Amino acid sequence: MMTICETNVAKIEAICEEYNHDKGELINVLHKTQNTFGYLPEEVQEIIAENLHTSLAQVYGVVSFYSFFTMTPKGKHPINICKGTACYVRGAEKIIDEFRNLLDINIGETTKDEKFSLSSLRCIGACGLAPVVLVGDKVYGRVTLDSVKEILEEYE
Amino acid sequence: MDTISIKIDNKNFQVEKGTTILDAAKSVGINIPTLCYMHLHDLNTTHNPTGCRICVVEVVGRKNLVPACATECLPGMEIKNQTIRVLNSRKTILELILSDHPTDCLICAKNGDCDLQSMAQQMGIREIHYKGDQSHYIKDTSPAIKRDMDKCIGCRRCVTMCNEIQTVGALSSINRGFMSVVAPAFQMNLEDSVCTYCGQCVAVCPTAALTEVDHTNLVIRALADPNKTVIVQTAPAVRVALGEEFGYEPGTIITGKMTAALKDMGFDYVFDTDFAADLTIMEEATELLDRLTRHINGDITVKLPLLTSCCPAWVNFFEHQFPDMKDIPSTARSPQQMFGSIAKTYFADKLGIKRENMVVVSIMPCLAKKYECSREEFKTNGNPDVDFVLSTRELARLIKQTSIDFESLEPVEFDHPMGESSGAGVIFGTTGGVIEAAVRTAYETFTKQKLHKVDFKQLRGMEWIRESTIDFNGTPIKIGIAHGLGNARKLLQEIREGKSQYHAIEIMACPGGCIGGGGQPLHHGDSTILLARQKALYSEDKAKVIRKSHENPSIQKLYAEFLGKPMSEKAHELLHTHYFDKSNHVEISKD
Predict the structure, then answer these.
(1) pLDDT, tens digit, 9 for 90 and up, residues B396-411
(2) Are A65 and B175 a contacting pair at CB < 8 A?
(3) How far apart are CA B151 and CA B164, in angstroms?
(4) Looking at the partner chain, which of B184, B587, B590 has a beta carbon nearest the beta carbon of A57?
(5) Which fold has domain B3-82?
(6) Is B500 a catalytic residue?
(7) pLDDT, tens digit, 9 for 90 and up, residues B75-98
(8) Are B174 and A43 within 8 A, CB to CB?
(9) Adjacency order of strands within the sheet including A116-121
């Protein structure tokens, strides 16, 4: 059986209350809940389903449909690699591969020590600096294969 | 009726205003092929997600083809159903669907009864021009239902049945694009989900993505074992539906032929679940009167309304979703389980054999019965009261496998003593039937007067929720009836909120009751089939000499020889049960 603590249940209930426990507001409730917890684990979805009087399968259906929603916790330092056109042609794919090799995780995953998570996004409007990598809110421009290791070392 | 003029394939027609192209075409005898679409007219249910696009037609003046199932007819609309463009598009669409579908039709469980296969045949598909990835999923087998999602074509009919009609919420569409599939939450196994095994998903699945767990081989093995006495019981709804599998009109009563086929197959005794239905009424009606009398005498601890408990999917439903109300339903076991329990005690004693050497097989219109017989509380020292359950469809397959010429069979009577039944037992197979049977017995017991008019037409019908007040000689008894679990939910919520006025409520999980069960011959969207089966049950009831459960002489003998009286200690031990809280709630911990 899954467990969740009272405080977190209260937080989810408050969000559902804000949307009048209306199941039509499921996506908004999920957005806000993910903002609060960083991700949407199974037990959180169960509490949402109960509060919106809908089924767990329906909630999971929506969570699994939209790529914005995630069921894995993000790392302490979330890494985002831009795959917009400019970054892509300047080798973003190879940069991604290098991060995957060094961290031993795939896109959408988090390292075992929960320090780093890896995801990609589309164009952050800094094409002049392509390829671009974000770690948390910090932007790294003109990233090369060699600099990937250096970036990670900053967070050791 | 307001009508409008439209043209289909250059012919002028007057059709009802506001209808879809599909319905309009149908009303003038023109067939437009459909695949994902499903319309159950008599149950007021339409499913048209426009997902498959097989029903596309050309509308003059519009650039793109439109789905006929969801496009409204407008005055003067010119529709083309037979142009090369339309026919080629449909073929392309079907080939694309088939390109992600296994082609093992010869050994598929739905061979000959598959909507996709029929469509491929109808469109003359001889080659699939598109080669691409095929989806592969882990097969999921529960005690009643098998999921093979490699065969899912994404029509979502099951999702509509599970969520809209049944409000069970076990299945949902998950993921997106090519990865999209129908599954329980977190892709858990059906067995771990809130599934009730009602089987309505199976009843509407166009392919073999959802099928029943097949027990025919286990039954064949038991029949071949010389050390086993194999007895069979047949549920009321089977006899009015089995014929469809052999080309008979829906609603043809083939009870005698079915019995003959079972005898030919080698069952040692062919009995009737209707006998056990009569037994159920003895217990359930007594329980109802006990609660009513105590209620009338001012006992405020009495739980009312009494809810019927014959339907195993319904039992699963309240155990999962309304566990706080699990002391309201009758504690009477279902007829299937009462039969098994009596067969392996009373009847085994009569034969002088051990229960381990007796195999009880049930023929049921139901898939949840497969799960029900596996419940631990219905076993003695690990030996189940009912060993195997075959659906109506499985029985038909077994009859075909054994090369029995069904049509030429001479009708045979059920064996005694567990083959004797009243008309009240027969109508257990339809919505409204259980409560009508209970009323027939409860009335006479309560009023101590003879009931001359046994037909309670006010309890019959196909409306989702029905209610009626029956006059028990001055005491008004309020009855509620619901079929389809979504409707049961409405009545349960009323009870939870303290608003329910009923004394007794009958609930059946499947639309129409057992006649529309998940194990019945597939209706392929034709809900008139359910009406025909229902009518047949009432005519079978009418033809019976005995029409009240308590007048069944074999039942009277069973109480005299073995059980004592209804709700006796022995009856409690063998014929009653208790329910469990199956709500898998998250555990909430202190911080």
Answers:
(1) 999 999 999 999 999 9
(2) yes
(3) 23
(4) B184
(5) Ubiquitin-like (UB roll) (3.10.20)
(6) no
(7) 999 999 999 999 999 999 999 999
(8) no
(9) A116-121, A77-82, A133-135, A138-140
